[in-house]
């Protein structure tokens, strides 16, 4: 077994990796692609099945119009060509989770071809081309007896059999695991913006296989590729690709050759191991599906879908920069989801301070979201209240520090910030007399430091300011407080 | 492509069919004859002709609206299978 890091840096520099990804995305339809069974996740085994998806004789598939719509929307969003005619095909193989003995997919006449996904790399922006996007059905789920003592059968749950998928095949234009990560993140973001896939990798709504090969830099032909499966998080995709690139380089450097095979990623051990050798490539004996007519799409219908597409991440990011004058970095963070961007825009409008609103969301709001998890939709402080708070801070009604205290309170208290200021006595202290009284109190309570300051130790002043600020629970106006302290110190020593 | 015993073996293996050795030659001959007959079609010039994957052309394919209609007969479904384990279909261990 070649350990990760086996290839030296010098060897790594002599090679270039060529990576293509195949992504399967489950479409967010209520029903399966060819029958009216539910697609909801987590139902009890074999409750969402019917004669059609069980592969029983005497039934015919009827295509789900919504699945077609979602696939076309995806194609439009990535700038693919939508073919007015595409053809379903049978992909024949035997596996217990595929009851018909074939998967209905698309082969030589896919729904979409071309297009691309723009990513950002260390070397600048890059568009990863797409080969195709086609519609197909999912298989069921096999539960193998691993670890179950005395059990020698595989259990099969066919709830997932027939769930609509799109397969998105990239051109072999990715060069590093990091680029693959960026590509997947962007693709997922687009799918979620379109609301055609929930992007949940844990539930299998988004799955990825990676094809990896290496070649000496400058060589035009591709090297022999391997396929890595079982990549159930984007970080695993990144790690597995880096591992496999390194393994192939070390192998070639030691005079070996790469064998075309399928590897399974073992995330616990951080290694990819042979699943099956592909020396004899699969022969799926594709042929046109006799039970389904070619899928003919009306050009006007496609144009209506194009016109109804929501604003996509790149366009939205550019608009936020333009409309609110915030930095591109902020816009990138704020367009994580459409809901977050909407939340930001409402907060910005309400507060009248777009950049300050952005700061509060990127730091305070996101910190809490990272801690408690959850999306912006369920965040306890809605945009109207956050906008009011940001507005109060911007106007100097409260300090940033008090603002943060208010924010903490607002997480559990549904009141608005102004009401909370009154309720908790958090109004700023900027009245000179009050600040002087505070200063006297603090100096009396801290005779030691006060004496040190008088003896010429200027640094102690900061300590006294800190004590006074603490005493005021952060409400004291910082500059005025310092002035008051200096004044009191001066009058007392005179 | 002429169909010989090697091809028969491969097709049988892909289709999970068990073929008796004594029948192999015969299958090769018969398949070769069938494909030879179909191969005559290759002689036609089909340049610029849209491939026909379906003969029931005409009306656009019906599309289904995305509304759940549950079959709801789990027992009947599981009952059709040769073997089951509770709510699951079972097959001999595959890995």
Structure description:
The complex is a heterodimer of chains A (494) and B (95). The model of chain A has no long low-confidence stretch (mean pLDDT 92). Chain A has three domains: 3-300, no CATH class; 311-423, no CATH class; 432-493, Arc Repressor Mutant, subunit A. Helix content of chain A is 40%, strand content 20%. Chain A contains 16 helices and 17 strands. In chain A, strands 1, 2, 6, 7, 8, 11, 12, 13, 14 and 15 form a ten-stranded mixed β-sheet that branches. A three-stranded antiparallel β-sheet of chain A has the order 5-4-16, with no helix packed on it. In chain A, a hairpin with a 2-residue loop joins strand 7 (116-121) and strand 8 (124-137). The longest helix of chain A has 20 residues, at 234-253. Chain A has 494 residues and is α+β, with helices and mostly antiparallel strands. Chain B has a domain at 5-42: Histone, subunit A, CATH 1.10.20. Chain B is built from three helices and two strands; from the N terminus they run αααββ. The longest helix of chain B is centred in the first third of the chain and has 19 residues, at 21-39. The interface between A and B is large, with 52 and 35 residues.
Structural features:
heterodimer, A: 494 residues, Arc Repressor Mutant, subunit A, 3 domains, 10-stranded mixed beta sheet, 3-stranded antiparallel beta sheet, 16 helices, B: 95 residues, mainly alpha, Histone, subunit A, two-stranded antiparallel sheet, 7% strand
Number of helices of chain B: 3
User: Could you tell me which chain pair has the largest interface and how many residues each side has?
Assistant: A-B, 52 and 35 residues
How many strands, which pairing sense, and closed or not: the largest β-sheet of chain B? 2 strands, antiparallel
Q: How many DSSP helices of chain A?
A: 16
In angstroms, what is the radius of gyration of chain A? 31 Å
Order of SSEs of chain B, N→C? HHHEE
Oligomeric state, counting identical vs distinct chains = heterodimer
SS class of chain A: alpha+beta
- Supply the CATH architecture of the domain at 5-42 in chain B: Orthogonal Bundle
Q: Could you please say which CATH topology of the domain at 5-42 in chain B applies here?
A: Histone, subunit A
Q: What is the rounded distance between the termini of chain A?
A: 82 Å
Helical residues, percent of chain A: 40-55%
Strand count, sense and barrel status of the largest sheet of chain A are: 10 strands, mixed
Q: How would you describe the shape of chain B? A: flat
- The parts of chain A where pLDDT drops under 50 for at least 5 residues are none
Radius of gyration of chain B: 22 Å
Parts with pLDDT < 50 across at least 5 consecutive residues of chain B:
none
Average pLDDT confidence of chain B is: 88
Number of E strands of chain A = 17
* Overall 3D shape of chain A: elongated
Indicate the CATH class of the domain at 5-42 in chain B.
Mainly Alpha
């Amino acid at each position: 077994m070649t350990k990760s890091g086996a290839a030296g840096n010098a060897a790594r520099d002599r090679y270039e990796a060529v990576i293509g990804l195949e992504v399967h995305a489950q479409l967010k339809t209520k029903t399966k692609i060819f029958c009216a069974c539910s697609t909801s996740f987590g139902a009890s085994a074999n409750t969402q099945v019917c004669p059609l998806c069980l592969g029983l004789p005497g039934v015919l598939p009827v295509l789900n119009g919504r699945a077609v719509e979602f696939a076309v929307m995806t194609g439009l969003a990535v700038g693919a060509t939508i073919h007015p005619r595409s053809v379903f095909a049978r992909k024949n193989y035997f596996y217990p989770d595929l009851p018909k003995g074939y998967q209905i997919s698309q082969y030589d006449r896919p729904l979409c071809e071309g297009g691309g996904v723009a990513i950002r790399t260390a070397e600048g922006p890059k568009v990863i081309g797409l080969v195709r996007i086609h519609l197909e059905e999912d298989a069921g789920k096999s539960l193998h007896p691993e670890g179950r003592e005395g059990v020698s059968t595989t259990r099969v749950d066919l709830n997932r059999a027939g769930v609509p998928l799109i397969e998105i095949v990239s051109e072999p234009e990715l060069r590093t695991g990091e680029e693959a990560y960026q590509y997947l993140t962007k693709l997922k973001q687009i799918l979620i913006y379109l609301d055609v896939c929930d992007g949940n990798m844990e539930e299998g709504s988004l799955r990825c296989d990676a094809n990896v090969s290496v070649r000496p830099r400058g060589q035009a032909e591709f090297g022999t590729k391997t396929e890595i499966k079982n990549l159930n998080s984007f970080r695993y995709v990144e790690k597995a690709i880096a591992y496999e690139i390194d393994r192939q380089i070390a192998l070639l450097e030691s005079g070996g050759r790469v064998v075309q095979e399928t590897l399974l990623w073992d995330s616990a051990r951080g290694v990819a191991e042979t699943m099956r050798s592909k020396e004899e490539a699969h022969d799926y004996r594709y042929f046109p599906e006799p039970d389904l007519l070619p899928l003919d799409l009306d050009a006007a219908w496609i144009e209506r879908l194009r016109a109804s597409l929501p604003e996509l991440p790149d366009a939205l990011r550019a608009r936020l920069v333009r409309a609110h004058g915030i930095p591109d970095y902020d816009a990138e963070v704020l367009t994580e989801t459409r809901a977050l961007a909407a939340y930001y825009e409402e907060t910005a409008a309400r507060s009248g301070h777009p950049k300050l609103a952005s700061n509060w969301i990127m730091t305070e709001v996101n910190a809490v979201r990272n801690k408690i998890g959850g999306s912006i939709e369920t965040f306890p402080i809605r945009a109207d209240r956050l906008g009011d708070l940001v507005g109060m801070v911007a106007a100097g009604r409260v300090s940033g520090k008090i603002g943060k205290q208010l924010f903490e309170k607002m997480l559990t208290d549904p009141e608005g910030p102004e009401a909370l200021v009154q309720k908790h006595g958090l109004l700023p202290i900027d009245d000179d007399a009050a600040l002087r009284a505070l200063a006297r109190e603090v100096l009396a309570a801290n005779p030691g430091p006060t004496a040190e300051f008088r003896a010429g130790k200027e640094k102690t002043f900061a300590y006294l300011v800190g004590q006074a600020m603490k005493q005021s629970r952060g409400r004291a106006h910082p500059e005025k407080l310092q002035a008051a302290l200096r004044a009191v110190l001066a009058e007392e020593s005179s | 492509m002429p169909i010989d015993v090697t091809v028969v073996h491969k097709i049988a293996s892909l289709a999970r069919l068990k073929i008796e050795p004594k029948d192999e030659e015969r299958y090769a001959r018969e398949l070769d004859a069938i494909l030879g007959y179909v191969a005559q079609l290759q002689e036609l010039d089909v340049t610029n002709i849209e491939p026909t994957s379906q003969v029931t052309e005409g009306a656009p394919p019906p599309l289904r609206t995305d509304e759940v209609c549950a079959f709801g007969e789990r027992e009947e479904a599981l009952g059709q299978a040769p073997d089951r384990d509770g709510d699951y279909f079972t097959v001999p261990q595959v890995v």
